[in-house]
């Protein structure tokens, strides 16, 4: 397993946001984490990346306990997060945003190669290389956020709501890109409210409700589960 999460518990003051969840991700998989607003999905990703402090539990990445590592060390090790809401550097150019994604790297030739790889996946970013990132469309900003993450050379990519706010045709494009990134060698843990799309792309999924994992299994089985269909797939 490339990722093992054990007994992950997080409090926000008196509120227990995560209640001792455990799950695992095998290398090469796409795993979806599904739940309604407030279920704890983003908190889970932030805890893995050590952006927020855990109350209890451990996170093991590629055999190393990274529970106490600073976020920059986690990124340098190959675990990279694309945050909800894109969080691009709006006042910087597209190229400068991509360069920021590679800030932990020293291999200049490799960085150039990966920049070309990003342009191969997102040709529009090459066309807008000198454009100020804040002036891009929502879909282009999502492409930039994903491209910036690829510049860190991730082995495990955490994607937080990549389709949020996008038109349906762009949602299809983003999910095609997620599959392409996975085929290129990156393992993916996907948080996504569009449960139909998330289950359609994943090998396995975990259902999160009020900070607890209530169901798990192969994505295809969950798509045919009556309770999952009623709660997340519109019947």
Structural description of this entry:
- This protein is of the alpha/beta class and 235 residues long.
- The chain has a domain at 1-78 and 157-163 and 187-235: Rossmann fold.
- 38% of the residues lie in helices and 26% in strands.
- The protein has ten helices and ten strands.
- It has helices at 41-48, 71-77, 94-101, 108-121, 123-127, 138-150, 168-183, 195-201, 219-223, 226-232, and strands at residues 3-12, 15-25, 30-34, 56-61, 64-65, 79-82, 156-160, 187-191, 204-209, 212-218.
- The strands form two sheets. A six-stranded mixed β-sheet has the order 6-7-8-3-9-10, with helices on both faces. Strands 2-1-4-5 form a four-stranded antiparallel β-sheet, with helices on one face.
- Helix 3 packs parallel to helix 6 (138-150).
- It is globular and about 45 Å long.
- The two termini are 34 Å apart.
- The model has no long low-confidence stretch (mean pLDDT 92).
């Amino acid at each position: 397993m490339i990722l093992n999460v054990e007994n992950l518990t997080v409090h926000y003051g008196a509120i227990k946001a995560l209640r001792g969840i455990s799950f695992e991700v095998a290398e090469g998989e796409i795993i979806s984490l599904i739940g309604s607003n407030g279920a704890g999905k983003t908190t889970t990703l932030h805890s893995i990346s050590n952006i927020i402090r855990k109350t209890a539990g451990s996170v093991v990445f590629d055999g190393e306990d990274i529970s106490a590592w600073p976020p920059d060390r986690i990124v340098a090790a190959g675990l990279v997060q694309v945050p909800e809401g894109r969080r691009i550097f709006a006042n910087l150019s597209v190229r400068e945003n991509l360069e920021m994604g590679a800030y932990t790297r020293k291999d200049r030739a490799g960085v150039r190669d990966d920049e070309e790889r990003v342009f191969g996946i997102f040709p529009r970013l090459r066309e807008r290389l000198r454009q100020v990132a804040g002036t891009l469309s929502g879909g282009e900003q999502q492409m930039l956020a994903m491209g910036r993450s690829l510049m860190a050379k991730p082995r495990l990519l955490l994607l937080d709501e990549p389709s949020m706010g996008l038109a349906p045709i762009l949602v299809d494009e983003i999910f095609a890109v997620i599959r392409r990134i996975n085929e290129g060698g990156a393992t993916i843990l996907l948080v996504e409210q569009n449960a139909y799309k998330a289950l359609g792309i994943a090998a396995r999924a975990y259902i999160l409700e009020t900070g607890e994992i209530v169901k798990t299994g192969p994505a295809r089985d969950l798509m045919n589960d009556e309770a999952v269909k009623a709660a997340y797939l519109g019947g």
